[in-house]
Design a protein that fits this description.
The protein is an alpha+beta fold and 607 residues long. It is built from 15 helices and 24 strands. The strands form eight sheets. It has a six-stranded mixed β-sheet. A five-stranded parallel β-sheet has the order 3-2-1-7-22. Strands 4-5-6 form a three-stranded antiparallel β-sheet.
Length: 607
């Protein structure tokens, strides 16, 4: 009996360490990770989300409240639902007609604490298990099979030094750094490729060589001019005023006129429009003579140890805070400059555990997986003669931004030089292929954040709304792989697209049929097959600006469902879907609905 009791106790302990039935494990509660966990749970999976810190939400709850996108029409799926809930939170707490609702910018400019509260609710509603304060220690694998191996379990180190062992059927690495992906032995790249590697003119240096330079990091401060909520910059530990006095020459020469500005005449980029309750998200200012980002010290971060990463983070903290403290406090700074600097402060009601200072460094780029498809500049090329970009029939997400990089290196000093490798290249809205999140070796791993892209390509996907869409796709892909008992590499993309469309996530940019429309799934399915290409020529005007980087819908991307089906369009669509007898339909909408209905009845709406 004693032996039986011992064995029973051991069995109970094992079961406690390995809860039965966990399907999906997501590492890192970034917005992409939260979207992945929620989507997997929606797909009927038992999902666990492990976050190394105590705060979920990544940068969206740690300072990056100025969401990076161009047009609202690009926001679909999980991120759109998140933004809607942020707006509803303000309406519930401040009134539907309140200034807070207006300033939330349809929920995309939420305060960090509001964003965090909404994320917590979304996870709880789907029953996602959330484990905080556990860092990845190692992975355990099954043997190789058919040229690929399977992760059996991940071992985490908890805050008290203990081990937590978690098994799952599919693992999703949603970390900014790609730590789980790298530990799984997947190929990845750090830094810029040569210009010839993917035939990208904005890749490596002028000589065309590859290097280890990653895009610059900085803190995204949440700041305010509301006196009752304002905290001035603290004097950072080890502060030396001589580290910052070089900034004064730019004010003396007139190159800098302000400390805080949305334009290049300042250092701390106070984003417009303002956030609710008199706050703004402060960022690095592109092409300014003095910058917050420090690309010359980042290169060791992606592959660095925890101690090395912490040292790099501390260097950024010292410089970002020390520069502001100098401009607010040092008598050598002109009084007008000190007054401008002191007119802004950190928020008492944000990040109380860190004195109002954003707790996370903005890691714009670290490791980038080399997966089944590498997202490059080719993926965002315009289609010749067409308003739309390159067609990808295996698309799982869309993007609407620019290829951008705040610089990968620096020539000269902080106050006498310039950033190297900086670029901002506009492109039409683009599609992102499934292979971008799929690794080459591991059969049960998906990577939506440190995803497969060239350095130049990564500049167009490294935005939180896009990472969120990729996370949503990863969650549904994990559910599909488990349901169909296949490796993630063998997921039927048409079925994955069907699930994404049903969940309100777009796979092609459409300006006039939004999620929630009865025609959304049909239009997305049809457009992803190529039906919306060729409807509008490439001589479209630029989208009209609204405020800051935000603009109205991009011209030439409407379906116009009520528009009569002209002879040319009939012919084009019959080539795409032969046998649909387009002659009996009078409008575009009638034809698309009938075609989608027919394929749905055939049991293959995604194909």
């Amino acid at each position: 009996m004693k032996v039986f009791a011992v064995l029973l106790g051991a069995l109970i302990a094992v079961n406690a360490a390995h809860p039965a039935g966990r399907d999906v494990l997501v590492y890192a509660a970034t917005p992409g990770g939260i979207a992945a966990a929620v989507s997997a749970a929606k797909g009927g999976m038992k999902a666990t989300l492990v976050e190394p810190t105590q705060r979920i939400g990544g940068l969206t709850t740690s300072g990056l409240s100025y969401s990076d996108f161009r047009s609202f029409e690009a926001l679909t799926g999980f991120f759109r639902e998140f933004a809607d809930r942020v707006e509803e939170d303000y309406a519930r707490n401040d009134g539907a007609d309140s200034r807070q609702v207006e300033d939330s910018w349809r929920g995309t400019l939420g305060e960090p604490e509001v964003n965090r509260r909404v994320f917590v609710a979304m996870l709880a509603e789907q029953g996602v298990e959330v484990i905080r304060g556990s860092t990845l220690a190692r992975l355990e694998f099954d043997d190789w099979r058919r040229g690929r191996r399977r992760i059996r379990e991940a071992v985490f180190r908890s805050a008290d030094g203990g081990e937590v062992r978690l098994e799952a059927k599919v693992f999703i690495d949603a970390s900014y750094e790609g730590d789980l992906m790298a530990m799984a032995g997947e190929s990845f790249h750090v830094g810029r490729e040569s210009r010839s590697h993917y035939d990208e003119s904005m890749a490596g240096d002028a000589q065309g060589g590859a290097d280890g330079q990653v895009q610059g990091y900085n803190f995204r401060f949440i700041m305010t001019q509301v006196e009752s909520n304002k905290l001035l910059a603290p004097r950072p530990e080890g502060y030396r005023r001589e580290d910052f006095e070089g900034v004064l020459r730019h004010f003396e020469s007139g190159r800098l006129k302000k400390v805080f500005s949305p334009r290049r005449d300042g250092i701390f980029r106070a984003h417009l429009p303002m956030m609710p309750n008199g706050k703004t998200d402060v960022n690095d200012t592109p092409h300014a003579p003095v910058r917050l980002s420090m690309p010359d010290i980042n290169d060791g971060y992606p592959n660095g140890s925890a101690a090395q990463r912490a040292q790099i983070v501390e260097q950024h903290r010292y410089y970002n805070l020390g520069l502001l403290h100098f401009l607010q406090d040092d008598p050598a700074a002109p009084e007008t400059i000190r007054a401008d600097a002191r007119s802004w402060g950190f928020c008492r009601d944000e990040f109380p555990e860190t004195g109002g200072i954003s707790p996370r460094l903005y890691i714009r780029e670290a490791r980038r997986m080399v997966g089944q498809h590498v997202f490059t500049g080719r993926d965002t090329l315009p289609t010749p003669g067409d308003a739309r970009g390159t067609l990808h029939t295996d698309s799982i997400a869309i993007g609407d931004y620019v290829h951008n990089c705040h610089g990968t290196g620096r020539t000269g000093t902080r106050y006498d030089g310039e950033h190297d490798g900086e670029f901002y290249k506009p492109v039409p809205p683009y599609q992102i292929r499934y292979g971008v999140i799929v690794p080459q070796k591991t059969r049960n791993l998906l990577v939506p954040v440190a995803c497969s892209a060239s350095h130049f390509g990564f500049g167009a996907v490294r935005l939180e709304p896009i990472w969120t869409s990729l996370g949503q796709a990863a969650g549904w892909a994990a559910a599909t792989a488990i349901d169909d008992a296949v490796a993630v590499q063998d997921v039927e993309v048409g079925e994955l697209q069907r699930r994404l469309h049903r969940d309100g996530s777009a796979t092609i940019y459409v300006s006039d049929v939004a999620p929630g429309s009865r025609d959304f799934a049909a239009v997305q399915w049809f457009g992803t097959r190529g039906g919306l290409h060729g409807l509008h020529p490439d001589d479209q005007p630029k989208a009209k600006p609204i405020a800051g980087q935000y603009c109205e819908a991009h011209p030439g991307h409407a379906v116009e469902l009520d528009r009569p089906l002209d002879a040319g369009t009939r012919l084009q669509w019959e080539r795409i879907l032969p046998g649909e007898n387009a002659a009996r339909f009078e409008t575009r909408g009638e034809w698309i609905r009938a075609a989608y209905s027919q394929h749905s009845r055939n049991g293959n709406p995604g194909r």
